[in-house]
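Contributing: when you submit paired examples, paste them exactly as shown. First protein:
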Amino acid sequence: MKNPIIIALAAIVVLIMSSAYVVDQRETAIKFRFGEIVEENIKPGLHFKIPIINNVETFSSRILSLDAKPEQFLTNEKKYVVVDFFVKWRISEPGKFYRSTGGDLRVARNRLENIMKDGLRNEFSKRTIQEAISGERDQIMEGLQTKSNEAANQLGVGIVDVRVSQIDFSEKNSESVFKRMRSERQRVAQDLRARGAEEAERIKAAADRDAEIIEADAYSAAEKIRGQGDAKAADVYAEAYNKDAEFYSFHRSLEAYRKSMTNTGDVMVMEPDSEFFRYFKNKSQ
């Protein structure tokens, strides 16, 4: 009698265990009935199903990453740039995701990568290299995320974030780009040198003009002082002459003798009665 009860209880336990399933907090689930979706986007927690008739497929609800390989894209200048990008995405509609990809994450990543590359190709084709590298990267990201979300919704996924981690030149374009950049830098350097030389010439001209003015003022002041000194000397001489004219004449003659007979080898040829030697001739004076 006990065996049938134990068997029945065991069967009930097995039935309950096979009927119950748990969806993790980091997951979402879909319930099938004979392969047909009957319930989707099942929330985390304890749920039940009919064994054999129903089966359950779970999917991660966390943010997933797609780190694509660097790809070449053509700008509107018909030059290639190598772009390295990554995408943050999540499964937003499990039912649509399962129908479009069969629930295979690899298929989803491949299709999402193609969507992103098409979007990047479209964005870069409208811009120059300079705009793509420095000026409009944020606009590229915004436009790409908006347009790629529209296509990604068909897969049942949502784009959380898109980032271009690196933009580089292709090997063919690198040398020509570097030459153009070098030429531009040289042009800027030459322009700066020319401006510097012009400024230097202007400063030099101003300094020369100021120096000439200063020298002229100094010469004028010196001549004025010299004139004042000569006038003063003349006054002194005149005053001395007026006091004792003969002594003044005698002193001036001695000065003339001293200056004219400085060197012992000097020879002077003059008439004996010359006025120059009058103080030698007249001893009484």
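Second protein:
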Amino acid sequence: MESWWDAAVQLNGKEMSYLNVLDTEAAWQLVSRFDQPAAVIVKHANPCGVAIASTIFEAYTQAHGADPVSAFGGIVAVNGEVNADTARAISEIFTEVVVAPSFSADALEILCKKDNLRLIEGAAPFHSMAIDVRSIDGGLLVQSVDEVDEPLDDFTVVTERAPSDTEWSSLLLAWQTVAATWSNAIVLANGNTVVGIGGGQPNRVDAARLAISRAGERATGSVAASDAFFPFGDTVSALAAAGVTAISQPGGSVRDEESIAVANTHGIAMVFTGTRHFRH
């Protein structure tokens, strides 16, 4: 079975730990979903910075700027070559691992001055293993991999207002990110940058409040993605109060009409994706 790890090369740093491998895998899988230059920062298997831009440097600076507190001690993944400018920016922050398709000679000269910084050069994931495996007492729990590949044709606008082109672009970024975040999860994106992530919460409204808190003023004019349906309209109300303008969610609640009505009241565009992504 092929794996990108088979051909990956560690160019610098300490030996990879168990958690380093898990977090690097999570970061590499997510950043590899994007066709544009992208950067992902992961901490404890959750993304804390995600951005796409015209260059890798811009993507990294935007991803880091979204939540610099959480990015400290994180894993950085980019889907293009790390150049000197990007290396200098990364070197200013304590980082555990940087994974990329390649590093320029100048970038290596800068980053290798940090003896403990792990630099991994790797190819895109092969996706050859179609199952997820977790251990339980006396056995293994196995399920198929959660693929985030639903076509846009499956998305349905359910509100009076449809998303603008800009909102659609941000919604797709938020949707990819929320699928990679521990559930219950809400993700806010503004433009090409994820500005607020609330994950791993026992209820959806708290996940929204956490995402809103992390986004701060950047929540105004942002869009939101939810990994599962809203059981009540309270989460939509919280997002509306924060200035969110569009929402993507799977739909499927017996109270979908309540959430749709709240969205319409506030002029929010809402899209049902038809697929939920519970990450546990």
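If you have annotations for the second protein, write them as plain sentences, like these:
The longest strand covers residues 46-52.
The mean pLDDT is 94.
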